[in-house]
Amino acid sequence: MVSTSARRGSVSVALLISIAGLKGAYGGPWLEVGDADELLPTAQVTLGVDPLTSISGTIFTSLDKDLYRIKITDPATFSAVVIAGGTLTNSQLFLFDSAGLGVYANDDVTAVDPLSLLPAGHPSGPSVAGIYYLAISGSDNDPANGGVEIFTDIPTGVQIPTIALPLDGWTPTFSVYGGTYTIALTGAGFATVPEPSTVLSAVAGAGLLGCLRVRRRFRR
Ligand SMILES: [Ca+2]
Ligand SMILES: [Ca+2]
Ligand SMILES: [Ca+2]
Predict the structure, then answer these.
(1) Tens digits of per-residue pLDDT, 121-134?
(2) Residues less than 5 Å from ion ligand 3, measured at CB
(3) What's the whole-number mean pLDDT along residues 163-180?
(4) Model confidence, pTM
(5) How many structural domains are present in the chain?
């Protein structure tokens, strides 16, 4: 005979496994779906349960740029870095606020490091939590407003905005760089979180399944 505490244990384990499964399905990385667009109204919206730990995708052609709608959950620890291993060898990262105004950007980390870093705790970094847009391109496709570049186009280190106008296009520069990338993130979340009812009903469904399994075992 199965004791009450053993039954409770089985149900708890079933629930924990269900919740862990849901987290795996929704939380963690975001993988580019098709090709992310490059302008605010059509930016790719990340969807999932926080935290958002990375974004992976591909710069398909010399003119491709990818713009993602994300959330910054903790401005103090927010950071974004293109990690080694992708085939996009000369990346650029740009962060915009919810209105499309430039926050900060980076082409290369150092003169000898072709990857890009938006560091945590930078004075020009984000100061409030909320919706932001994160863009990646191959050097030297740069974001612009009315054809004027939004950031200081310095080759290394953090770039700051030079105009307070929103992203409405990109410089028509032909980049020789393309390939796959992964941007590791801290302090970030998904732009859109699934309705709690969806998650709860999935958890409740899994929990009910666990209970039924226990009951079946109990009857044996
Ligand atoms: Ca792309
Ligand atoms: Ca794109
Ligand atoms: Ca640039």
Answers:
(1) 999 999 999 999 99
(2) 107, 140, 142, 153
(3) 91
(4) 0.79
(5) 1
CB atoms within 10 A of CB 111: 9
Stated as kind and residue range, the H or E segment containing 132 is strand 130-138
Amino acid at 70: I
Average pLDDT estimate for 200-218: 48
The residue segments making up the domain with residue 95 are 28-193
Q: How many Å lie between the centroid of ligand 2 and the Cα of residue 176?
A: 15
The per-residue pLDDT for 61 is: 86
The dihedral of CA 12, 18, 19, 24: what is its sign?
A: positive
Q: Please report, for the domain that includes residue 143, its CATH number.
A: 2.60.120.380
Residues 200, 93: Cα–Cα separation, whole Å? 36
**Amino acid at the residue 184:** A
pLDDT at 26: 54
206 CA distance to ligand 3 centroid (A)?
Answer: 49
- State in Å: Cα 67 to ligand 1 middle: 9
In angstroms, what is the span from residue 136 Cα to ligand 3's centroid?
11
Q: Which ligand is nearest to the CA of 141?
A: 3
* Residues less than 5 Å from ion ligand 2, measured at CB: 35-36, 64, 66
